Each structure stands twice: as structure tokens, then as C-alpha cells.
């Protein structure tokens, strides 16, 4: 079947019956791709025999979580705290019922699991609806049936276990997903288990409950396992890495949760659980980081040297503060106002990938990422020559930098709702390299402020941004950290916070912050590995997309009211 035939097939009515919704009669229709219902108005006369249009509430089959017999209504009502409104007469007339649980958008990109119960006059009809709806759900091959879940009990505000048990597990149970749950006992427990022990054939996906650091563990476990299974040497910076077959789900329970926010538009555990249930799939680029041809780490969100590296290093001693450690260390690092000397060289991305300043936001169904996916295998890009550092296509920038940030994705998070690079793409094979040169403290503050407002992040003379496929950083070890002189030091007063003299106890190098982990080396080589992994997500839905689906799915449907049911 092609084109319009497929569309017609999707609209083919599988079931159509009159039932009762609460205490009012309702017409209910099931097609291949939607369940629709409409309460029957008293004034509405089907016998009139005219074709008309009416307002139907519609739920796409792909957004149905489960359908089941409403076994114990009293219990349902206690759970949902709804009053029992069914009259005895209604109960006698419609004694059988089934409940459809489905995804409902509740604004701000949040999803909720909502229920609608249909009452039937006879048992066979009720069972038939459950059976046929379940048959349609079974056709959705991308839905996971079995998941391996890792919980970091110490991430963020240490709520991981509670969040999983109270908010996520009930959603998975309702959807009939089986889970094996591991609560981690130490750092790198999840990574090591995935790398060497886990029987991955049993699962359709891996879920992490925690922050970006916990996600990074899962990423390293899965990617390393996949490479060793395929005998790919990760130490080779130019090795062609094999994409992971299992998708990763993120239940946000960390401090920044930027990967979850940038791929769903929110950090809400129930929303993430529902993206997993419906089997969403979002490809993601991964940066591989090497030092002297030896593998260091992978990175999905931000690689930050200077400001974000120093802030992370300082914050590690304050983990007991939870997410607030970043605020405290952020202020301290800002006041220190260090900058670092070195050379950044990079290979620009192809021009058709746009620019970090083009305001083309990466949203659900992004065409730039889809196009990249289509041409990825053709390897149309570049000759070996272009790839070599030092060839004409590479550019080098030497200088003193307050921050060098590579945003592989927008890095949007609650602290910075548009992110470090608002137009960065999730899966275009490039990363946005942001260079913040030496500037005054006030100027740097203005730059940081732009992470939180709507102004162009890069519209400052001391900031430049490049969309790149690869980059390298070489620190200049002869440099000393020069701290800005703001005020003269008063005799007998506290020691100066800043001095124009080199201060030997400061390290001339910063550290790299790689998805919230500190890298052991400063001279690094970075390559973007296009679409190496997939998440259970769909990218951020456009406001209009969201709005259309928010307004309680109400579809204008031409419907032949003569249908015999
Ligand atoms: C004057 C107002 C200044 C406000 C500045 C806000 C800047 C926010 C930038 C956010 C970038 C986020 C990049 C993501 C980094 C994470 O991978 C990493 C680890 O996350 P997690 O494991 O969940 O803790 N987080 C960080 O490195 C902290 C970012 C800094 C947050 C202030
Ligand atoms: N059981 C554990 N004990 C201690 N550290 C752990 C444990 N499980 C995971 N970790 C580590 O905790 C770090 C932070 O985890 P994460 O979930 O990202 O929280 P946060 O966002 O607060 O940093 C990660 O580096 C991860 O490797
Ligand atoms: Ca990217």
C-alpha cells in the first residue's frame, strides 16, 4: 500500500459502538491510529440521516499507555480520589467497563498519564474493545517491553529511589513493561556492570535515574560494550564507532539534568517515563575526547574549560550541598575571574548545517538532523586531507580565554532555559565551540546573564562561536594565571582577592568539565560521533505542536451519522 491508501487504511474504522462515558451516552470509534469519542447530545439526531461534522476527542493509538478491564471501580476511585458518581441505575444499565490510559499534555512540555473509562452494556463488547485495542498496541514495534534500570541514590537531592518507586514504576507497571532495577552502590557501578556483566540481549533499553553524571556512566558502559563487542579500538581518534542498539531513557534526579531538559523540554520524571513507554527515539551526537591518541571520555552535553571547569572542580568538594553547590562555586569562580592561555584549532562543520547564530532551533522532527541522518551513511563529507589538523580547512585561534565551551546540544536546563548554544542540534554531527576571551568581570557577567535571558548569547566582541566537527586544545604552559587588579590592597586588611602579580599556587591550567566529570588532561582532541546513541525522547515539541495536542485532543471529523451502530 502506498500514499493515500495507507492514510485511508489508518482511518479505517475497526470498531464503532455506543457506550456510556460517565453517565452520558457516547459514541466511541477505534481506527488503526486513533480512539475517538463524543458524548451524544440530546439534540443530536443520528436518525436524521445527514452527514455532519462534530467535535470528537481523539487519542492517537501511539499515545495510549494501556487498556484494561476496569476491575474494581471503587478501588480506582480511591486511587484517583474521584467521587463515585455512578448511579445504581447506570450501574445496572452499563455494568461492564474498560479504561484507556493515555498521554495527556499538561503544558510546559509536561506529560501526564490520564484515564478515560467507557461503560458497556454487555461483557463481550467490553472484551472485544480491550482485545482489538491491545492488538493495535502490539503492532507498535518500537515500544520497550523490558528495561534495565540503574538508580543513583545519591544524585541531586538524593531522591532517585523515591522518584523511581513513587512516580515512574507505577507508569511502567501500567504499561506492562518489565524491569530489572539496580540501585548503584558506588560510582561507576552502572558503567562497569553494563560494560562487562549485563546480559543486554534481555532488554529493549537502559534507563538511568540520576543526573548528567549518571547518564554519562550509562553512556560509557553502553558505548564501550558496543565497541568491544564489535572489536573497535576506542583509543583510535579516527575509529569508526558502532552505534549502540539499545536506547537510553533518562529519569531526571540530578543537579543539572541538562540532557533530559534539552531532549524533552522539561525535567519531569513522569514525562520521561511516558516518553519511554511510547517508545520515542531521538538520535544523539556524542563527542569522543582523546589525549595523545589515547581515549579519555565521551561527552554528550558540555565540554567546558576555564569557567565551567574551575567551577566543577570547586563544586566537587561541596557535593554535600546538593545542586546548590553549583551556585556557590559559580559565584566563587566568577569572583576569581581566571583566564587561561592556549590554542584552539578546529575543523568547521559543513555549511549546510547552519550556524550557531541562525536561530533555527532544533525541535522535534528537526529537518537538519533528519537530513544528516539520511546522508550519514553515504559519507559524502570530506576527503582525508580535510580531516587532518594543519590542512587548509582547519583553523587555529590562539589567545587568553575565560571560558572555552563546546555545546554538543543546546545545554538548556532550568538554570538556563535556552542553554549555552540555543541553536545547537541534537544529532547533526557537529558541536558549537564557544570561545570567551579575556574581558572585564562586568563583561563576563553580562555574558553569563545572557544564558538566562532571551538576548543573543554571542553578541559580544569578546565572544566567538563556531560550529565544528572536530577540535583540539593545546594549553600554553608558559602562561601564568594573571588575576585582575580591581582595588589596591589596604595595609592590615584581608589579603587581596585579586592581584596583578602571577600567583604561583594557582594552576596555570584549568580542568575540562565533561558532562560534569573532571578530565585528567588539558590537551585534548575532540571528534563529534554523529548519532552514536538514541534516547527515549523526541526532542522538544514546538509550542504550536504542543498547543494543538494540549487543547484536549478535539478533532473535527467528518463522520457519517448513518453508520449503523
Ligand atoms: C548571572 C547568572 C548566571 C547564570 C549562569 C547559568 C549558567 C547555566 C549553564 C548551564 C550549562 C549546563 C551544561 C551542563 C552541564 C552538566 O553536564 C554538568 C553535570 O550535570 P549534573 O550531573 O546533573 O550535575 N553540570 C555542570 O557542569 C554545572 C553547570 C553549571 C550550572 C550553574
Ligand atoms: N552509589 C553511588 N555512590 C556514589 N556515587 C555514585 C553512585 N552512583 C553513581 N555515582 C556517581 O555520582 C555522580 C553524580 O551523579 P548524578 O546522578 O549525575 O548526580 P548530580 O547531578 O547531583 O551530579 C556520578 O559521577 C556517578 O558516577
Ligand atoms: Ca550536535
Q: Bound small molecules, which ones?
A: the ligand CCCCCCCCCCCCC/C=C/[C@@H](O)[C@H](COP(=O)(O)O)NC(=O)CCCCC, adenosine-5'-diphosphate, calcium ion
* Cα-to-Cα separation, first versus last residue: 29 Å
Largest sheet: 10 strands, antiparallel
**Sequence stretches where pLDDT stays below 50 over 5 or more residues:** 47-52, 478-506, 552-565
| Percent of residues in β-strands | 25-35%
Mean pLDDT, all residues: 86
Task: Give me the count of strands.
Answer: 22
Number of helices: 15
Helix/strand-derived category reads alpha+beta
Q: How large is the radius of gyration?
A: 28 Å
> Regarding CATH, which class of the largest domain?
Mainly Beta
CATH topology name of the largest domain:
Tumour Suppressor Smad4
Quickly give the CATH architecture of the largest domain. Answer: Sandwich
Plain-language structure description:
With about 575 residues, the chain is an alpha+beta fold. It has helices at about 5-10, 75-80, 90-95, 125-140, 160-175, 190-195, 210-230, 260-265, 270-275, 305-315, 325-335, 365-375, 385, 440-450, 545-550; strands at about 15-20, 25-30, 35-40, 50-60, 65-70, 95-105, 110-120, 145-150, 180-185, 205-210, 245-250, 280-290, 295-300, 300-305, 340-350, 395-405, 430-435, 465-475, 510-515, 515-520, 525-535, 555-560. It folds into three domains: about 10-140, Pleckstrin-homology domain (PH domain)/Phosphotyrosine-binding domain (PTB) (PH-domain like); about 140-280 and about 535-540, Probable inorganic polyphosphate/atp-NAD kinase, domain 1 (Rossmann fold, 3-Layer(aba) Sandwich); about 285-370 and about 390-480 and about 500-530, Tumour Suppressor Smad4 (Sandwich). The protein is built from 15 helices and 22 strands. Helix 10 crosses helix 11 (about 325-335). Bound molecules: ligand LXC25N3T, adenosine-5'-diphosphate and calcium ion. Adenosine-5'-diphosphate binds next to helix 7.
Amino acid at each position: 500500500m502506498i500514499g493515500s491508501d495507507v492514510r485511508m487504511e489508518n482511518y479505517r474504522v475497526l470498531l464503532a459502538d455506543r457506550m456510556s462515558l460517565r453517565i452520558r451516552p457516547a459514541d466511541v470509534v477505534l481506527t488503526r491510529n486513533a480512539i475517538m469519542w463524543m458524548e451524544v447530545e440530546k439534540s443530536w439526531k443520528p436518525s436524521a440521516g445527514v452527514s455532519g461534522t462534530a467535535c470528537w476527542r481523539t487519542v492517537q493509538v501511539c499515545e495510549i499507555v494501556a487498556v484494561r478491564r476496569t476491575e474494581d471501580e471503587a478501588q480506582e476511585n480511591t486511587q484517583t480520589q474521584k467521587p463515585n458518581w455512578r448511579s445504581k441505575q447506570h450501574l445496572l444499565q452499563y455494568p461492564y467497563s474498560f479504561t484507556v490510559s493515555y498521554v495527556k499534555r499538561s503544558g510546559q512540555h509536561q506529560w501526564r498519564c490520564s484515564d478515560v473509562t467507557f461503560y458497556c452494556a454487555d461483557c463481550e463488547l467490553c472484551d472485544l474493545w480491550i482485545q482489538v485495542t491491545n492488538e493495535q498496541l502490539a503492532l507498535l514495534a518500537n515500544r520497550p517491553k523490558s528495561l534495565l534500570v540503574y538508580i543513583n541514590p545519591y544524585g541531586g537531592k538524593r531522591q532517585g529511589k523515591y522518584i523511581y518507586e513513587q512516580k515512574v514504576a507505577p507508569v511502567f507497571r501500567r504499561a506492562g513493561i518489565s524491569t530489572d532495577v539496580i540501585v548503584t552502590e558506588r560510582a561507576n557501578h552502572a558503567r562497569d556492570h553494563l560494560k562487562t556483566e549485563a546480559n543486554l540481549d534481555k532488554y529493549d533499553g537502559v534507563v538511568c535515574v540520576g543526573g548528567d553524571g549518571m547518564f554519562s556512566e550509562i553512556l560509557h558502559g553502553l558505548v564501550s560494550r558496543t565497541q568491544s563487542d564489535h572489536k573497535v579500538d576506542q583509543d583510535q581518534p579516527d575509529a569508526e564507532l558502532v552505534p549502540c542498539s539499545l536506547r537510553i531513557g533518562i529519569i531526571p534526579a540530578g543537579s543539572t539534568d541538562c540532557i533530559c531538559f534539552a531532549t524533552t523540554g522539561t525535567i519531569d520524571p513522569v514525562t520521561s517515563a511516558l516518553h519511554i513507554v511510547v517508545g520515542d527515539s531521538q538520535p544523539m551526537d556524542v563527542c569522543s575526547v582523546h589525549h595523545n591518541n589515547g581515549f579519555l571520555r565521551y561527552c554528550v552535553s558540555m565540554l567546558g574549560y576555564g569557567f565551567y571547569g574551575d567551577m566543577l572542580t570547586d563544586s566537587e568538594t561541596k557535593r554535600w550541598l546538593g545542586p546548590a553547590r553549583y551556585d556557590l562555586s559559580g559565584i566563587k569562580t566568577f569572583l576569581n575571574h581566571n583566564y587561561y592561555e592556549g590554542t584552539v584549532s578546529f575543523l568547521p562543520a559543513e555549511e549546510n548545517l547552519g550556524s550557531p547564530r541562525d536561530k533555527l532551533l532544533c525541535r522535534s522532527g528537526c529537518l537538519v538532523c533528519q537530513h544528516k541522518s539520511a546522508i550519514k551513511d553515504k559519507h559524502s563529507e570530506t576527503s582525508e586531507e580535510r580531516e587532518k589538523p594543519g590542512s587548509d580547512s582547519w583553523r587555529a585561534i590562539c589567545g587568553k580565554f575565560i571560558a572555552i565551551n563546546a555545546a554538543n546540544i543546546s545545554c538548556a536546563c532550568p538554570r538556563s532555559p535556552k542553554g549555552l548554544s540555543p541553536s545547537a542540534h541534537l544529532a547533526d554531527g557537529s558541536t558549537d565551540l564557544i570561545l570567551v576571551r579575556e574581558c572585564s568581570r562586568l563583561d563576563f557577567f553580562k555574558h553569563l546573564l545572557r544564558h538566562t535571558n532571551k538576548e543573543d548569547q554571542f553578541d559580544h566582541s569578546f565572544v566567538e562561536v563556531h560550529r565544528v566537527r572536530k577540535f583540539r586544545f593545546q594549553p600554553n604552559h608558559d602562561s601564568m594565571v594573571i588575576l585582575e587588579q580591581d582595588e589596591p590592597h589596604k595595609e592590615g586588611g584581608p589579603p587581596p582577592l585579586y592581584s596583578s602579580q602571577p600567583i604561583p599556587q594557582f594552576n596555570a591550567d584549568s580542568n575540562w568539565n565533561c558532562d560534569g566529570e573532571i578530565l585528567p588532561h588539558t590537551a585534548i582532541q575532540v571528534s563529534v560521533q554523529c548519532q552514536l546513541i538514541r534516547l527515549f525522547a523526541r526532542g522538544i515539541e514546538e509550542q504550536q505542536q504542543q498547543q494543538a495536542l494540549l487543547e484536549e485532543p478535539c478533532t473535527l471529523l467528518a463522520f457519517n451519522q448513518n453508520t449503523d451502530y
